Amino acid sequence: MTELSRRQFLAAGGGLTLAAALAGCASPVVTSFTGGQPRTADVIYWHLFGGGDGANMATMVKKYQQSSGRSVEATLLSWGNPYYTKLSLSASSGRPPDVAISHLSRLPLLAQAGLLEPVGDQFSAQGITQDKFTPAAWKKATVGGTPFAVPLDTHPFVLFYNTPLAKKAGLLDATGQNLKPMKRSDDFVAALKAMKDANGLDFAAVATITADPSTCWRFFTMVYSGVAGPIVSDGGTKVTIDRGAMQETFAFLQSLTQGQKLMPSNATATTSSTLFSQGRVGFLFDGVWQIPTYRGIKGLEFNVVPFPPLLGPKPVAYADSHSLVIPKSTGRTAARTKDAVSFIKGLLDQSSIWADGGHVPAWLPVQKSKEFLQLKPQSNYTEAAFNAVYDPEAWYTGAGSDFQTAMGSVIASVLTGATDPKGAVDAMTTSLKTFSTARPPV
Amino acid sequence: MTTTAIPTPASEADVTDRPPTAAAAPHGENRAGWLFATPFLAFYIAFLIGPVVIGLVISLFNTTTVKAGVGSWVGLSNYADVLSNKDFWASMWHSVLFTLLTTPLLVLLPLIFAIFASRMVRNQWFFRLAFFAPYVVPSAAVCLIFAFMYTPETGLITNAFGWFGLTAPDFFGSTSGAWFAVVLLTLWWTFGFNFILYTAAIQEISEEVYEAATIDGAGPWQQIRLITAPLLRPTMGLVLILQVLASLKVFDQIYILLAGGPAYSTRPVIQYIYDTGFSSYRGGYAAAATMVYFVVLVLISAGWFLVRRRSNSANA
């Protein structure tokens, strides 16, 4: 035994390398073979927030780690379809994160597929109960009678206005900050006209129409929901369009961009932000998450309020919510679940930081706190969170979905004048049929 | 293919008389052959045959990617849905359109440049490297670089149009602009592969042919037209079919650069399969779409080989 044969040498070397690899990063490698969940931190958390929201979320996670002494591994994944693809595949294959963000509009499918833990006793034990949330958000978090998500916020589609321009147009009340109350679409259109004429503007308002189907969909749904119910029902298998209401909605939208030319009929995201930040329009129709975009601009004074009632008698806000979910995993211990719930509670308690990004906290203890009430313009539109209308409940709807793209394309063609209201109702019905007749995955 | 080399047996008796193992390979060698092929066969079965069989099975079920198991039996209805879905056919057309746009460019331009490069007296290596280098860059990196250059207002390519007094198309917002963007990217990126195939083929051509031609008084242009080009014809055929198949499989650059947009007007069929299978969770349906697409690819390949075989036998 003086010499090692070449074979023995190679075998020994290979064995050593494999052992080193397994020992070096023991848990993830081993668990990837055994099917468990890697335990690289007390709580593994997935979210989809970049930019300002991402920075706020990082602060909240850091603060939670400091106060609780628990480690959290937060992973940022790219927004929209890719995120939900990864979340659902990880959950259905049994290796999900402990806590994940989900839009409430995306919740029905995840819940119906049995991928989520219900919000039950472990949550109420730590004080997370229904009475402490915005009711509309909690209702949307409930699927088939069981709550499956803890709402973090509501982010509605709202009305931005340039305060000095609005003042010049005589639209402000005695406070000099708020718009005079408007009751119907007539008042709203009159306000837009006054804004355009008094300030000598090319357009009174702007919304991102070009290459942004989601914004078109939000604008449309807000107006349509004032007069009719959801456009699909029965889990998305039945088209329930109110043709009269839809045609009226399309006619109203088209009158803004075409008939009276109060809004440009072509506007990309850049057009919108340029026109509004330079004071070349008085109104902007967009989501509250755009507030940070305009906050830092010098010489731009603006305010944000919910839309007034338009076609219907009551104000309606199209909205979505970010929520926190615990994906189902057979391997998760009770202690880990407890940590997950405590992490969710920790994020809720800090949602005043989250509100910086324009979102209305869904957690009432924060929403009613002095800190939030003093936060402007966020606290102006809390009401919108209570009047929120979400995407219709179906397996294919939700934030960033193909459904929003398809619907938004029809709506955009109305706004640009390519399709007349009646033709658009037909186009939307046809487009919806491809979704409603597809075999649902759940 | 090799069977054609074996003389046709005159009768049944002849066949039985022949030794059982063709070409009479020693038994041990045969076993060693299989042994050496085992690692490859294992991967081939695990990652090609296996998935194809699984795909075929789940295309008959309502399989979803959010639940374990194959789901409920639906027979051929997934196929009926796929064949009657206009989004599927639209995406098939986009893959074909991409092929029509890229194939002529990627078959002819590398040929021309390979001939030019071979005529370079000095520093040929530099041209070969320069043309081939982009091919080894990963798709994500290529797309990021081009996305910077296509950016409206500030991008290099957008500005380059301005230098000539032209207005750049909207590379991300308009369908024609998007096709232009993705074709230009693909041309730059995959040019090198075909270029190398041609270069190799040019090197195969014997120097003596050129010498003889020079002695007969043929100029460089005549040599290219009458010697190089005809002798490269088989390689051109190969490049053509490889390019058609590669272009029909387009996914990376369109997905990363455009996500199939604007409004799905450039979405290739592979992205359609990905979108329905993973984003919409309809695994069974996506498997059926894959099978339809697979059949189309097989038909194209088979058609190609039939045409080639006929032309080969016509030549012979």
Q: Can you tell me about this structure?
A:
The complex is a heterodimer of chains A (442) and B (316). Chain A is an alpha/beta fold. Chain A is built from 20 helices and 16 strands. Chain A folds into 2 domains: 156 residues, Periplasmic binding protein-like II (D-Maltodextrin-Binding Protein, domain 2); 204 residues, Periplasmic binding protein-like II (D-Maltodextrin-Binding Protein, domain 2), CATH 3.40.190.10. Chain B has 316 residues and is mostly helical. In chain B, 72% of the residues lie in helices and 0% in strands. In chain B, helix 3 packs across helix 14 and helix 4 packs across helix 8. The longest helix of chain B is centred in the N-terminal third of the chain and has 34 residues. The N terminus of chain B is likely disordered. The chains are: A alpha/beta (442), B mainly alpha (316). Chains A and B meet through helix 4 and helix 19 of A and helix 3 and helix 13 of B.
Q: What structural class results from the helix and strand content of chain A? A: alpha/beta
Radius of gyration of chain A, Cα only, in angstroms? Answer: 25 Å
CATH class of the largest domain in chain A: Alpha Beta
Helix content class of chain B? over 70%
State the total count of DSSP E strands of chain A.
16
Q: Structural class, from secondary structure content of chain B?
A: mainly alpha
What's the tally of helices of chain A? 20
The CATH superfamily of the domain at 91-281 in chain B appears as MetI-like
Task: Classify the oligomer.
Answer: heterodimer
The level of helicity of chain A is 40-55%
Shape of chain B: globular
Chain-averaged pLDDT of chain A: 91
**Strand coverage percent of chain B:** under 5%
Distance between the termini of chain B: 16 Å
Q: Give the class-level CATH name of the domain at 91-281 in chain B.
A: Mainly Alpha
Question: Main traits of this protein?
Answer:
heterodimer, A: 442 residues, alpha/beta, D-Maltodextrin-Binding Protein, domain 2, 7-stranded mixed sheet, 5-stranded mixed sheet, 46% helix, globular, B: 316 residues, mainly alpha, MetI-like fold
